Amino acid sequence: MSLEEKVSLTISIAKSYRDRLRTIAAKRNLHDLDQLTSASTIAREIICDQIDELERVEADFQATDTESSNERVSGQIEESVIEQ
Predict the structure, then answer these.
(1) What's the distance, CA 27 to chain centroid?
(2) pLDDT per position as a tens digit, 19-69
(3) Distances (CA, A) of 28 to 7, 32, 60
(4) Using CA atoms, how far apart are residues 59 and 52, in angstroms rounded to an integer?
(5) Chain Cα centroid distance, residue 82
(6) Is residue 9 part of a domain?
(7) In sequence order, which ranges of the chain are alpha helices (DSSP H)?
(8) How many structural domains does the chain have?
(9) Which of 26, 59, 76, 81 has the most other CB atoms within 10 Å of its CB?
């Protein structure tokens, strides 16, 4: 998660997920009494981490797809040269 300016985002989630986020936050608060953590802080961390991970996976996929395309084109060129 970056250190950029934070902006507000409103989302709706099931009550059970909200309760789980609150439980995680409460456990963190008990673990570190000097650091105040809220359910929204936990949600922000999860969302940002997942978006970062999705972007990494997508970049890897695109790189792999590009390599595959290059190999196909290279193979087609080789076949064309062999046929001639």
Answers:
(1) 24
(2) 999 999 999 999 999 999 999 999 999 999 999 999 999 988 888 777 666
(3) 23, 6, 33
(4) 11
(5) 45
(6) no
(7) 15-31, 39-83
(8) 1
(9) 26
Question: Are 28 and 35 within 8 A, CB to CB?
Answer: yes
- 10 located within any domain: no
C-alpha gyration radius of the chain: 23
Q: 1-21, pLDDT tens digit by residue?
A: 568 899 999 999 999 999 999
Establish if 1 belongs to a structural domain.
Answer: no
Q: Which residues form the domain of 62?
A: 15-83
Q: Is residue 39 part of a domain?
A: yes
CB 62 within 8 A of CB 70: no
Say what the pTM is: 0.67
For residues 74, 79, 83, 84, the Cα torsion angle rounded to the nearest 10 degrees is 0
